[in-house]
């Protein structure tokens, strides 16, 4: 193949991903010096299109970044007024009172927001300051110079789907070079994954842990709507099959976010996270709330859960990992947006100081120091044992032990030290022969929906003619290894129905990848027990088009 020649553009800082982390970094750089050149690339068709965290926002990140956000028209209006926590059984629930909860679990002063809309607003703030934002531009490759990351390739499309060679409408895209490159791709970023592997950034840290979060937006009967109410549940339907739980947030316009998270370290390969979510909505408490309502949107996204123990080294020559590219979620609080913003701000300040000193392409160690020893580190360190306690000893132990640990950490010590996470989520998958298939009730089309119908409500689109962005390292593995050993769990763990095993009489089973349905949650890249699926950025763009998730 002839060498591909690309034009290039030079910037001080190139930022990949217009989520809260990337946008915060861009805004902070321009606040510090209007002359610093900053570009932000976003794979969604517009900023917010791929943002799923319909969210209780701890405003501490935004307070630090844009202290006057309240008077700048930020779409952050609904303050939390009520916090509920229930443990569910199949037919009832027990409410855990708020008083034994550690103070950090309190949502007082937090807001129920559409993070997609918050990101749209932040993008406007960034553009006013002079940041260049290119939506619909996936950064598909890293550009190296010697040992350092020098930039990214964006906007390449038109490769032949069969051969991978440039096709008739091929566009090579551009190289965007930066003195520093920030990867703020969110959880399991594809370029971040490459950087973590190349520079061995996870060495000495626990493996990253993940959950799969699925969410629907419902418009409900106004008589049942309680603006500002936040409800979390655990227990049924997952029981001891997996860790996880639900969230129900009442936002404006009689809407509620109904979400469900399944920890991806589950063992039973027959577990079907999407169907667990659908089943959850039939719990009497939830069904009563949703009855007569209408589901208006659906989406899914992985969430990082490893916390403090799993933060990799965050810098390598010329490059830094921001937000959930480094896994900065506080798991018991289910909050990462504030830390994403704080990390963006810290990375910007470190890069600005480096540029002032005439440096480029080196490691921004001050950024890493600030994350680990500043507000983000403090936030994550005091909850570090909740997830490993849950994984090792189950829900009750995690509620009791994790609760006590969060209390003692509030005053500065832990009875447990730092508990390590076990294996990776992929390696946690058990052999099918050791488990029984789970019988899930059929969706009723009123409260629960089949997967493909729901995917239509994510407004996902990929051009049929583009090459599949879900690549198998070895095309034979799904049928020759995963099917006999694990009953090919991709059929079930994917919340968008991308993967199918098609069995036709008289023929060998076939593994089919319907990449057009992919909602970019990254679960396959995380959970495939053979680690054979590589999620790459789609050439020619595409993905979900979330309205106000
Ligand atoms: C179901 C669910 C519920 C959650 N609830 C809450 C909550 O209530 N409160 C809270 O604070 N946090 C919550 N979180 C966590 C929160 O979503 C994350 O911590 C936060 O989104 C991290 O921000 P980020 O900027 O690092 O990444 P993201 O928000 O994921 O943004 C990354 C952006 O980069 C883009 N991108 C990725 N790769 C590329 C590429 N190669 N080229 C170009 N663009 C790219 C993506 O399209 C996306 O727009 C939740 C997460 C989930 C999944």
Describe the structure.
The structure is a single chain. The chain has helices at about 20-30, 60-65, 115-130, 190-200, 275-280, 285-290, 335-355, 365-375, 375-380, 385-395, 395-410, 450-455, 475-485, 490-495, 525; strands at about 5-15, 40, 55, 80, 80-90, 95, 110-115, 130-135, 140-145, 150-155, 155-160, 165-170, 175-185, 210-220, 230-235, 245-250, 255-265, 295-305, 315, 320, 470, 500, 510-515, 535. Helix content is about 25%, strand content about 25%. It folds into 3 domains: about 10-70 and about 115-205 and about 310-380, FAD/NAD(P)-binding domain (3-Layer(bba) Sandwich), CATH 3.50.50.60; about 80-110 and about 210-305, D-Amino Acid Oxidase, Chain A, domain 2, CATH 3.30.9; about 455-535, Alpha-Beta Plaits (2-Layer Sandwich), CATH 3.30.70. It has about 550 residues and is an alpha+beta fold. Strand 11 (about 155-160) and strand 12 (about 165-170) form a beta hairpin. It is globular, with a radius of gyration of 22 Å. The strands form 6 sheets. Strands 1, 2, 8, 9, 10, 13, 19 and 20 form an 8-stranded mixed β-sheet that branches. The chain has 15 helices and 24 strands. The mean pLDDT is about 95. Helix 1 (about 20-30) runs parallel beside helix 7. Flavin-adenine dinucleotide (FAD) binds near residues 18, 20, 22, 190 and 301. Flavin-adenine dinucleotide (FAD) binds next to helix 1, strand 2, strand 3, helix 4 and strand 14. It comes from Paragemmobacter straminiformis. This is Electron transfer flavoprotein-ubiquinone oxidoreductase. Accepts electrons from ETF and reduces ubiquinone. Pfam families: ETFQO_UQ-bd (PF21162), Fer4_ETF_QO (PF05187), NAD_binding_8 (PF13450). Keywords: 4Fe-4S, Electron transport, FAD, Flavoprotein, Iron, Iron-sulfur, Metal-binding, Oxidoreductase, Transport, Ubiquinone.
